[in-house]
Specification:
The chain is 59% helix and 8% strand. By secondary structure, it is mostly helical. It has a single domain, classed as Arc Repressor Mutant, subunit A (Orthogonal Bundle), CATH 1.10.10.10. Helix 1 packs across helix 5 and helix 2 packs across helix 5. GO terms for molecular function: DNA-binding transcription factor activity. InterPro entries: HTH_MarR-typ, MarR/SlyA-like, WH-like_DNA-bd_sf, WH_DNA-bd_sf.
């Protein structure tokens, strides 16, 4: 396997673990991502769509499904009524905090078979990748759909 193959399979390992944790909270991975993204503060829908690499329509559909569960809510921005803000409801915030805690605790399990030095290297490299990634805009021309 070449480097691209390894990255592909690493993404599968991460996505499987993330999906497993999300399911334990009765959420799809996209719902879990949405909740974690708005758990600390409201976010503009347009910015959130760009950060998640989703079309605005796909995000709106995801928000509709999540709002029906009373986990998120939309509101117009106080500064500009054309801007739609998304935030976690009180119930959604509690769920998001528990979910995020579980994700940050258990996602590193994917590196459990590495020795301590390799685990530290993996953490360092993963941090560098995230810190140098532009998460404010879609990373591909193919936005995700829910």
């Amino acid at each position: 396997m070449d480097y691209g193959d390894k990255l592909f399979w690493l993404s599968v390992v991460i996505q499987r673990k993330y999906a497993q944790i999300s399911a334990e909270f009765d959420l799809t991975p996209l719902q879990a991502t949405l909740l974690c993204a708005v758990r600390n503060e409201p976010r503009q829908m347009a910015d959130l769509a760009a950060s998640l690499g989703m079309t605005k329509n796909a995000l709106s559909q995801l928000v509709d499904r999540t709002a029906r569960r009373e986990l998120v809510g939309r509101a117009s921005s106080a500064q500009d009524r054309r801007v739609v803000m998304l935030s976690a409801t009180p119930t959604g915030k509690v769920l998001a905090e528990a979910l995020f805690a579980e994700i940050t605790k258990r996602l590193p399990e994917i590196a459990r078979n590495l020795d301590a030095d390799d685990q530290r290297d993996f953490e360092r490299v993963a941090t560098a990748i995230v810190d140098t990634s532009d998460l404010s805009s879609p990373t591909s021309n193919q936005p995700l759909t829910p």
